[in-house]
Amino acid sequence: MKALLMAALLVGACAGCATQVDTQRIAAPGPAVTFQSNALRPANGEAMIAATALMPGDILLSTGSGLTSAGIRLMTTAPVSHAALYLGDGDVAEAVGSGVRVRKIDTMVADEAVVVAFRHPDFQSGLDVPMREFAGRSLGLRYDYVGVMLHAPFSLQRRVCELPLLPESVRDGCLRGVATIQLGSGSDGRFFCSQFVLEAYRHIGLPMTDADPRWLSPADILHMREGDVPSLRVRRSLVYVGHLKFHPEPEPPSRPLLLGNAR
């Protein structure tokens, strides 16, 4: 029984905040729209930025090298497993297993394998104050483990709504229906990573989507970027800022290793 519980927790944790790095595809700029593209590799060296290029309100999507991150990426079929907010002055607010916390951007970049920044085009000067206040009031709030656990079956069932040939209105309506049944609506005062980011934007009067934040994962935020097609309607597409770090997982060997080389 304990083993089954641990397995369920791992699957649930994987569904809430993670995806899969694609080291083959290159995210080339341009007006072409791609249906839920998972390409996340910098197109060239100019795509790499320093933390000094960030602005308050920037959304940071990342992936780690651990088992939980890999499981989330597998469940959500996306190259990111975590979402966080840049508050300015080197501070990053995020919801993790220990609760909502603030840490330094340098620490986050050092701990993650991939970190990429996106910007809301309507975020204006002065909105950083209420966003930082929201993060301050949220510090220590417990992680939404229940919401994350419910995302495990939802991440599988939602795929029937995401067929490329379906019209946008049909995809949106289908996904809202499945989410309402599987996840419900409303908030219990707890957050998982992407939910925290979306709630912060709702708090400052700049909601990224009309959908319940509990329904969205880091993969959904990734698909809100310009040139991609989100499953749920968004109010404004996110603008790509750049990669702060890109150390993807190593590619599997092209041919079997000899037993003498195994370690």
UniProtKB/TrEMBL annotation:
Keywords: Hydrolase, Signal. One of its GO terms (molecular function) is hydrolase activity. InterPro entries: Papain-like_cys_pep_sf. Gene3D superfamilies: endopeptidase domain like (from Nostoc punctiforme) (3.90.1720.10). Residues 1-18 form the signal peptide. The keyword Oxidoreductase does not apply. SUPFAM superfamilies: Cysteine proteinases. This is Distant relative of cell wall-associated hydrolase. It comes from Jeongeupia naejangsanensis.
